[in-house]
Design goal:
Organism: Alkalihalobacterium chitinilyticum
Shape: globular
Distance between the termini: 35 Å
Largest sheet: 10 strands, mixed
Number of domains: 2
Structural class: alpha/beta
CATH architecture of the largest domain: 3-Layer(aba) Sandwich
InterPro entries: SBP
Radius of gyration: 23 Å
Helix content: 25-40%
Protein name: ABC transporter substrate-binding protein
CATH superfamily of the largest domain: Periplasmic binding protein-like II
Family: Belongs to the bacterial solute-binding protein 1 family.
Keywords: Signal, Transport
CATH class of the largest domain: Alpha Beta
Number of helices: 17
Number of strands: 14
Amino acid sequence: MFKKKTLASLGFSTLLVSGLLVGCGGSDTSSTKEDTTDKDNENQEQVEITLSGWGSSPTEQKLFEETLASFEEKNPHIKVKLDVIADQYMDVMKTRLIGGQAADVFFLDAFEAPALMETGVLEPLDGYITEDFDIDDFEQPLLDAFKRDGAIFGLPKDTSTLALFYNKTMFEEAGIENPPTTFEELQEVAKQLTQGTDVYGYGIVADLARNVFIAESKGGKIATDNKATFGSTEVVEALQPLLDMRLDDKSAAQPSEVGANWGGEMFGQGKVAMILEGNWTLPFLAETFPNLEFGTAEVPTIDGQNGTMAFTVAYVMNAQSEKKEAAWELISYLTGKEGMEQWTSGGSALPTRVSVAESLGLYDDEIRQPFISGASYATVWADDTNLPIINNNFNNQFTSAFLGQRPLDEALEEAERVANREIE
């Protein structure tokens, strides 16, 4: 299941720039690169690097450790110390970066990336990337999430996207042969599948993370120049159909309204016939609701345009690392074709390279194909340094409008005003 990481602290950028980073190396890698042509030479100097990340399921953790072991086998001169931060990951990382104690390589969520890339704590990777690394093999939206001013500061290790889950049994009983392909069709199908308050046709997670691509589908923007702009007429028009489904059609509900904690649970319990959820829902359904007959499809189009969300994490290099060449060897292996294929072969995380998705047969996988296909056109969560403030204020007021407590335009106008006051 997708879990949000702790929101970024806005004062972090100023603190790092003014204190920690005076005299750091920046993007000049000439003094840190070593001759790696003798990698197989048993006399090569041994080096230990640290990799920090958060924990995952026992199955995923085992697979990740096996991938690291494969790297060490191919690079016997490099030992990787895995540092798992169990809680408050970004708070811990920021403290360590400020104190000069951060790992050589660490995970960075796209949500946190914009603010961190501005501080100078991350090593630009462009000088390390060679032609045979095949940078063009990455899905462009995922790679762009870790770029700033043309420089690459991270390489996406894996991704998760949204797709439409639909209950095959409910569809069959209602005489509906195929899942909807447009949002208009989804609205009509949702009404057909609704059974009072026992079953809703559509489940909605009413937060910004799941709905940015819908909010921007009419030409509006959630944020512009690091300020909130989600109160625009275009954004209100794009989001209004979600409220209409709940308030007018009575064909949609959010998890808390049916006694569920999140979208996958309300779908698994049969409280909704359709929902947009991520591929993290697949192992949850397999374990918790093994008899559920369901299918997946790409997110229905809006005005003829494809859209979905992508949640991605990158490996980044600490600009203060004294072992940058070894750190790059690790990053390049884990995000290279061999390492990425091993890590994503478990099926929970999706690869960010097209060639790896092809070799794993994901484009031919009936259930996973919609998720992997969506990566090429997804909106990546997130691309703004002030997103934590924007996100909090949007969610507070959008939820009130979704529940019918106030008109959507008034709610979002107020949320935008408060967000920008906090930003200023």
